[in-house]
Design brief:
single chain; mainly alpha; Rossmann fold; three-stranded parallel β-sheet; 7 helices
Length: 129
């Protein structure tokens, strides 16, 4: 298995570099069919942030992350937390990263989540400090 950096994912998905994008896509496809790819939850957090920063619609970000979770040959780190955070992100108003942090804490036994994020407080996922 080979791990992927966020920049490889970004190039493959956005197709924004004439040299690196085709290389990223080809290498990812070849490795996924062979020894497999590992995508860290941190890389997915960064990917979501980059995509939103590039004005990619939230629905497309959700679709992209779900596709990575469902792709044969790709192992995703912290899969249960990523899947739960993705569900919350899809239907909530917060950022994917905030939901992932909250879900990771809950997975590891945190009984609550302190945040200054008013959206998470409103959704009942956080308490203000």
């Amino acid at each position: 298995m080979i791990g992927l950096d966020t920049n490889v994912l970004v190039r493959a998905i956005l197709q924004d570099d004439p040299v690196q994008s085709p290389k990223a896509q080809a290498r990812m496809a070849a490795v996924a069919k062979g020894e497999g790819l590992f995508v860290s939850s941190f890389a997915l957090l960064e990917l979501a942030w980059v995509l939103r920063s590039c004005k990619v619609p939230k629905t497309k970000v959700v679709e992209t992350l779900r596709a990575l979770l469902a792709t044969s040959g790709i192992t995703v780190g912290h899969r249960p937390q990523v899947a739960a955070a993705l569900d919350a992100f899809e239907f909530g108003k917060g950022d994917f990263g905030d939901y992932l942090i909250q879900q990771d804490g809950a997975f590891h036994g945190a009984g609550g989540f302190l945040s200054f994020d008013a959206v998470l407080k409103k959704e009942g996922l956080a308490q203000l400090p």
